[in-house]
Amino acid sequence: MNDIQFPALFCYSGADEMLRLDNLAALQSLLADTHAMLPDADYIIDSLGTEWLFNNEGVPYPTTRRWSLPQLIARVQQHFFAQAQSCVSKIQAADLKSLILMISHDEEL
Length: 109
Prior knowledge:
Shape: globular
Helix content: 25-40%
Number of strands: 5
Order of helices and strands: EEHEEEHH
């Protein structure tokens, strides 16, 4: 869990909405609610583009998938479209970390 590079995005399987996690404490708070995630389905994308799944004990493990900036831009655009917050075609960023920081804290973790 210490290898996750923050900020990171928590992505619900089958949903377009995401949560931004700024640090390890925010992730631990999310993981404290065992009903908040589906093992081997919900995932994290960290600021290096590494995708992390969770095992049945809620421990994250890295997958072989690496998100590129264009892939994550498309995913973030889906998030904003689902929330009807902005013109999604204008969402761009210079790097993954800047893109992740565009996601607001929608919920108190």
